Amino acid sequence: MKTNLFKSLLMMMTLVCIIACNSRNKEMPSDAVVLKSPDGQLVMKFAVNDGVPYYSLDREGKPVVLPSRLGFELIGRDGLASDFTLVSTDTTSFDETWQPVWGEEAEIRNHYNELFVTLQQPAKDKEKGKPTVMQVRFRLYDDGLGFRY
Questions:
Q1: Cα 37 to Cα 39: distance, rounded to the nearest angstrom
Q2: Structural domains of the chain in order of their starting residue, each with its CATH number
């Protein structure tokens, strides 16, 4: 039982450290890409600041997620956390209602606005290497935000 408690405390301290380290830069640049939820209450901002991709989330003008870094630090390979340039952005909206086979709800609405971001990192070896491309897909619903690399 002490082992589980220790692991839980270690995970919580790690999460607090990640949040504290990610929120160093308190303001998003003025040229940040803005995405709003379908009802307009949630506002997500995305920007590349000095080669580092950041996102933030506000609800009704109040911060929910302070500017946070995106990327990966890899072992045995160049990291995917800096030296990026913004190549392109694309926004779309989606709204459908579907009926699950079972469950409490007869119909489920899938309604979101999406931001698809393409980032590029130059090759470390200019002669042999190719640039690294990272794509991030943000989906902003009325009740939350999801993203994937």
A1: 5
A2: 25-148 (2.70.98.10)
